[in-house]
Design goal:
Oligomer: single chain
Helix content: 25-40%
Structural class: alpha+beta
Largest sheet: 8 strands, antiparallel
Shape: globular
Order of helices and strands: HEEEEHEEHHEEHHHEEEH
Number of helices: 8
């Protein structure tokens, strides 16, 4: 049976894990998936060359990457012909990207259907407020990547070659009620901004005007200006009530 990363051709050089520097690929990948605003998206151009663009990135409820494109765009044309894509995430604002965690995902880009477009558009606009302008375009579309392979590196001597996307996938079983109540739960959390600030500072972030913008059964995403912060819940929850109770414990209340 092929491995989860069969879509990425393995290296022809053996890596000695014992010689690598200490590195947490799951933690680093979670931060990149949930706290990155931008990523480099590559599609297959009809001429044979990879075609790369910088795009906004949004994690779906299960952690799968979602991105926007107008159907007029060249990469939308490429996806229509061949939906294999690659997505690269990194701290693009850092002075030396090669010394920072980086993540590459490959898979199939599937257009979000009308049954999910409204909910994901609202989630996207909460992350990118100016998106309200272009999400209304007649050819606006959201695509979700069905991830087949992933590689994560933390810098020189910090490569993770044996991790698959299941390490980052969020279990949504039984959480339909929580997902449906996302807007109401976020509104209730945002009614107590001081508590959100306490949660952010408790997680090591700087003080600021933090706002809750997304949730899932395993965590909460806060935003303050351009900064995003992913907070893991103390336990998995599947109801709105359970989420609020877990958030209260995180805030020390």
């Amino acid at each position: 049976m092929p491995s989860i990363d069969a879509a990425i051709t393995p290296r022809d050089i053996e890596i000695n894990p014992g010689a690598a520097a200490e590195f947490d690929p799951r933690g680093a990948g979670q931060v990149l998936l949930h706290e990155s605003r931008n990523a480099a998206l590559s599609t297959l151009d009809p001429g044979g060359f990879p075609y790369g663009v910088v795009t906004n990135i949004l994690p779906d409820y299960d952690g799968s990457p979602v991105f926007f494109t107008a159907r007029l765009a060249l990469h939308a044309r490429n996806i229509a012909a061949d939906d294999r894509v690659s997505l690269a995430l990194a701290g693009f604002d850092r002075p030396d990207a090669l010394t920072q965690p980086r993540m590459t995902l490959v898979g199939h880009a599937k257009r979000v259907g009308p049954e999910r477009m409204e909910a994901l558009s609202a989630r996207y606009a909460a992350r990118f407020p100016k998106a309200k302008l272009y999400l209304q375009l007649p050819d606006a579309a959201l695509f979700r990547i069905e991830v087949l392979g992933v590689t994560v590196g933390g810098g020189p001597g910090r490569n993770a070659s044996d991790i698959g996307f299941d390490a980052y996938r969020i279990d949504l079983a039984g959480a339909e009620g929580l997902i449906a109540a996302e807007g109401a739960v976020l509104a209730e959390l945002n009614a107590a901004p001081a508590r959100l600030g306490e949660m952010a500072v408790g997680a090591g972030a700087a003080a600021g005007r933090w706002k809750a913008i997304a949730l899932d059964p395993a965590g909460l995403v806060l935003a303050s200006g351009e900064r995003l912060l992913r907070l893991d819940l103390p336990e998995r929850v599947v109801t709105a009530e359970g989420f609020m109770a877990a958030a209260a414990r995180m805030a020390g209340g």
